[in-house]
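Troubleshooting log. The previous structure file for this entry was overwritten by mistake, so regenerating from the original sequence record. Sequence copied from the archived sheet and checked twice against the printout by T.R.
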Amino acid sequence: MHVMKKGILYAVLASVLWAIVNPFIKQGLSYDFSPMNFAGLRFTVVGIILFAYTWHRGMWREIMQHRRLFGNLILINMFMGYTAFYFGVDFVSGAISSIVMGLTPLINVLLAHLVASNDRLNRYKVVSLAVSLAGLLLIVGTGSDGSPLDWRGIGGIVLLLACIVFSLLASFGIGEGEHLMWCLSATFTAAAGFGGALAYGRSFHKVARRVSQSGGALAGWPGAAGSRRGNRVLITDLDLFPPGFVELNGIKVFGDFSVERVVGYTATLIRDSGCGLEKLFHDLLRTQGAIFRRADSLCCYEGGGLSANIRGDQVLVGSAAFMNLMEVPLPQGLNVKNAVFCAIDGELAGIFALNYTLPDTVFPSLTSLLRERVGPVLATRDFNLIPAMLQQRFKLTADRMDFPPVERRRELSDPEQDHTGVLTAVLCREGLLPFAESVVGARRLRRAVRASAVLTCAGSTLGVLLAYYLTSVDAYASLSPLNLLFYLLMWLLPVWFLSGWVHRY
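Regenerated output below.
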């Protein structure tokens, strides 16, 4: 017992000394030393010291008697081993190199079992090696920045360890070490789920074809994964009513105001506000021979209108409700569903009757977004586009859409506003349909891939357990290549169906 404690003490001391040398090696290689030169310098100095020690103790004669053994140790362990080690340290950090060297106990125990008859594996050694290997793989498997592994990396490591541990238990654990390679091959085969190859590839192919038909695209998995960061989508004026879907039905000018003046004032405020009616009034401006004016003190009101000073005149532009709010008298019996009103110095100057036509793609796009629990945010600047109008006129589910205050809507719809620093790899043409298709497709792709991954992991886990049980009871015939192939194909079918339905929305 005393000898064992002494041996353990020396082993621990050697481990500490071997561990602390790696950072010094890394530091030495930073001083323009090549791996071979640094290793040669180190071992030359150590060799001189050990040669003097062995000569003094009379150990040189024993070395000469067993020169073949020592020659193999020098060639394999000292020369080849440390050459590879120094080259490896030159490419990785000293900490990582020390961790990789943690594989030494595993290799030593397995070789000792094969070489030494009195040093056999048992269940306790297998469990200890598994725990050590798990810690090693967890540390080595961290990212280059030291970030921890995600659930996929941890799951892969756990599955790998399970294959190794169960194979060792099914062979060495029951005294049949000669079956180790057979157990490893059967266990690893059962764990290699076919669904992993289709979980992403086939699903992405289906979604990409669907999205491309509407003018959108996902830049691989980052495009799909990036969609999970938000559950809101901005809806602007042009998303609901692109150019050409809002028409002018007529103009009526009141009082002594000229058409050119009323059109010029109204078009100026529409342009400065960034409203979606800008193109319509720009074309009207050219038709009527009017020009844009300089507007000062532009103000947007919550009631659905604008105000500004133009050439000393107080100009109001907005809806009928806004005119009533600003106490501008309107004609009796006025029956205009959607119009733009213009008032100059508190007097009604003109009415522009409009006709809104909803594109066929808007309703299904909004429906798809809402079904995927992506809430549309109405960042509209057109004062006519309010939830009540959209719900009554076009039967849109506007009650499920957010309608922020006017200043917030202007901020959200500002094309120069930097909303987030995260770039999502979603590409699409103009319009609501391509964007909605891309967002919905990305979300369905992400869910399909995750469900397929879970099914594949479940099949692999169950396969490992079954392989361990059958090998431990010597039922090797049940693990024939045909049976293993049938098992893997059985778990492939649900992944195949999931990836085939991902684009149907």
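The first strand starts at residue 216 and ends at 218. Archived copy saved in two places this time.
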